[in-house]
Structure of ABC transporter ATP-binding protein:
Amino acid sequence: MADPVLEVSGITAGYGPAEVLFGVDLTLERGAVAALMGRNGAGKSTTLKAIMGLLPVRGGRIRFAGAEIANWAPYRIARAGLGYVPEDRRIFTDLTVAENLEVGRRAARGGRPPWTPERLYEIFPNLAEMRGRSAAAMSGGEQQMLTIARTLMGNPDAVLLDEPSEGLAPVIVELMAEAVLRMKAEGIAVLLSEQSLDFAAAVADRAYVIERGSIRFAGSMEALEADEAIRTTYLTV
Ligand SMILES: Nc1ncnc2c1ncn2[C@@H]1O[C@H](COP(=O)(O)OP(=O)(O)OP(=O)(O)O)[C@@H](O)[C@H]1O
């Protein structure tokens, strides 16, 4: 890989006595988009949580932006420049949209222009229309957009997105894909977990397929699209 921002090597993790990840390897290049694909329960969310320090890593290494971050506290990983958007949209429902964005504001790093609410409203026009309104009144898709926008206010170098298209109406899925491509255009690397091949193919350069906690395929998105055996064996089609 030319210039990886995130390198995960052989990580193992689980919940209590249950082992869930059995040596996961993946690499995210600077400014690239990678999709971690697999069926329900394959280990996608667990991988992202382990990278983010939300679950103890029992073995293996995680290198982010030049530091070994395995088992750092999540806030420290976030401060190092890795953003995380969980599956269950975490917004503050008693704050307005604009106030939710302010909560996420952190100093910029790495010479890129800092994110501002105005720049984010260009990417997420539906948030612009709702900026003064309470976040409690938002649809699931709008909450997902707001969570991503708030994460960007932290000026991350890379973002982990857990199933960004799940449960969204088709028109919102399109907005979500545009938002991911815009993040990439701004130089932010994105690792997303995803079940939908259509969504992943629309945004990702590289694909990983996980099943029962092991990576079964690693390659370009084009190679995954061309590999019918892998798709039918490990993905929901
Ligand atoms: N908090 C938990 N405690 C115990 N086992 C868990 C916990 N969370 C997940 N698991 C188990 O870990 C395995 C991987 O789950 P994970 O959530 O990582 O899958 P996933 O690929 O993200 O799928 P999904 O699309 O369902 O989120 C599953 O067998 C699941 O039952």
In short: The longest helix spans residues 170-185. The pocket of adenosine-5'-triphosphate is lined by residues 15, 18, 20, 38, 40-46, 193 (CB under 6 Å). Residues 87 and 162 are 5 Å apart (CA to CA).
